[in-house]
């Protein structure tokens, strides 16, 4: 029986979660521990938050491996990856870490906002995956997964999210391409899932309001949906269903017609007007 025909499970395996100190990253780590992962590797810049998550993971029976990593620093990523590869090939890699700056484009600072957002949201998932992918490709004895957290903002443009949106467009394009490359080159044991949620009530998007018929998702619901899609090897999940509808309509309608429907009917273009995030004009997943 080939690995691609065996049901995916993290039981006894090694899971890496970036942005694991809080929010959805913490929930992914706890889900991995509950599902029987042997080792859960936790990466984040927040040392105190990492310690709390590690304690919870350990209490659930998994071994926690903690690394304080600045994902905007490629050298830090390479160093942490070199250490953590000793745990063995990853069974599941969750590229979860992300930040958002809610501001008009010209209000973004080139370094603090633009470079940091692109570095953490778009480049870090590629660097992290690049470091662990050879081992995951080379060990085909069991199914393996990569879960990349993108955003519905990467499918539908929105004011006050220009840099965040382009960072998530980049994740979607890269993640989809990686999936195709692995499939075409015969790595059937290794599947990639791209998760594109609308707003999630983690604190990252405090002050934002969901579009018409699109309430904020709970972190628990978002994590459960992403986990089940990853387990099934689903290539992409856009949630909730109204976010998928927005992507379809944007592709079908002329630009100005979509602007009217998306902006005036669904109210998408006003969703970030009162955004505060976890800090002034900023939020972290």
TrEMBL record:
It comes from the Bacteria. Keywords: Membrane, Oxidoreductase, Transmembrane, Transmembrane helix. The keyword Nucleotide-binding does not apply. Pfam families: adh_short. The chain crosses the membrane at residues 6-24. The keyword Membrane applies. InterPro entries: NAD(P)-bd_dom_sf, SDR_fam. PANTHER family: PKSB (PTHR24322), RETINOL DEHYDROGENASE 10 (PTHR24322:SF736). Belongs to the short-chain dehydrogenases/reductases (SDR) family. This is NAD(P)-dependent dehydrogenase (Short-subunit alcohol dehydrogenase family). It comes from Arthrobacter ginsengisoli.
């Amino acid at each position: 029986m080939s690995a691609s025909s065996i049901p995916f499970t993290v039981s006894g395996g090694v899971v890496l979660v970036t942005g694991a100190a809080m929010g959805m990253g913490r929930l992914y780590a706890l889900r991995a521990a509950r599902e029987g992962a042997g080792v859960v590797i936790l990466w984040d810049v927040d040392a105190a938050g990492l310690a709390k998550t590690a304690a919870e993971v350990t209490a659930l029976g998994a071994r926690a491996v903690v690394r304080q990593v600045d994902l905007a620093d490629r050298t830090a990523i390479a160093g942490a990856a070199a250490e953590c590869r000793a745990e063995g090939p990853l069974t599941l890699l969750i590229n979860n870490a992300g930040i958002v700056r809610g501001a008009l484009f010209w209000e973004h600072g080139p370094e603090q906002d633009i470079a940091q957002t692109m570095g953490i949201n778009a480049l870090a998932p590629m660097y992290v995956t690049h470091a662990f992918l050879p081992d995951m490709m080379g060990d085909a004895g069991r199914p393996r997964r990569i879960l990349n957290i993108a955003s519905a903002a990467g499918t539908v443009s929105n004011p006050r999210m220009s840099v965040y949106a382009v960072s998530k467009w980049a994740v979607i394009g890269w993640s989809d391409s990686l999936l195709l490359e692995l499939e075409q080159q015969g790595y059937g044991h290794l599947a990639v899932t791209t998760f594109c949620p609308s707003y999630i009530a983690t604190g990252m998007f405090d002050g934002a309001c969901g579009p018409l018929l699109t309430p904020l998702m709970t972190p628990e619901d978002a994590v459960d949906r992403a986990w089940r899609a990853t387990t099934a090897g689903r290539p992409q999940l856009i949630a909730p269903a109204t976010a998928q509808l927005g992507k379809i309509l944007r592709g079908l309608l002329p630009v100005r017609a979509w602007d009217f429907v998306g902006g005036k009917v669904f109210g998408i273009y006003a969703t970030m007007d009162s955004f505060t995030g976890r800090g002034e004009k900023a939020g972290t997943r």
